[in-house]
Amino acid sequence: MRHGIGYRKLNKTSEHRKALFKNMLNSLIKYEQIITTLPKAKELKPQVDKVITIGKKNILSNKKRLFSKLQNKQSVTKVFDELSKRYSTRKGGYCRVLKAGFRTGDDAPMAVIELVDRNPEAKKVDKPKKIDKKENEKKADQKVASK
Of the residues 3, 81, 100, 106, which has the maximum number of CB atoms within 10 A of its CB? Predict the structure, then answer.
C-alpha cells in the first residue's frame, strides 16, 4: 500500500528529479509561464508557492535559503524584488495549473503552469527585438561612414 507517500517519483532518480524541479522553478520565475506535462506541473505548484512565501520576508537568511534551492542569482532577486511585492496581500495560491491537451508524440497530458497575476512581458525576456531592414541599412551606412 502507498499510504503516506506524498510525491510523484516521475520515473527519475532523486538527483535527476531535484535538478529537474530546480530548472523548472528557475524557468517559471523567469518567464512566469511554462508548458510541461501535467504530473510535473502538479508537483511543481507547491514548490513555487513555498519559494514565493519565503521571498515575502526580506531577510538575509531567506535569501541564502532561496539561493541554495534555486542556485540562480537573477531568480532570487526577482523573487525578492518583484514577486514578493506583487503577492504581498495574497496568502497563498500564487500559481495555477491549466490543462493543455495531449502531446502529439506520446499522448502525454500537457499543462500550462503560470503565476496568477503574471506579467505578459516576462515571456519576451530572452527574445531579441525585431529590427527593421531600414535600421539595418542605417547601421551599415554608419559603419561605412565611420571608416
Answer: 100
The alpha carbon of residue 10 and the mean position of all alpha carbons in its chain are separated, in whole angstroms, by: 19
The CA R_g of the chain, rounded to the nearest whole Å, is 20
Distance separating alpha carbons of residues 19 and 2, to the nearest angstrom: 25
Q: Could you give all domains of the chain from N- to C-terminal order, each with its CATH number?
A: 14-146 (3.90.1030.10)
Whole-prediction pTM value? 0.83
Cell of 75: 531568480
Phi, psi angles (nearest 5°) of residue 129: -70, 140
Rounded CA-CA distance 85/106 in Å is 40
Q: Look at phi and psi of residue 122 and say left if phi exceeds 0, alpha if psi is from -120 to 50, else beta.
A: alpha
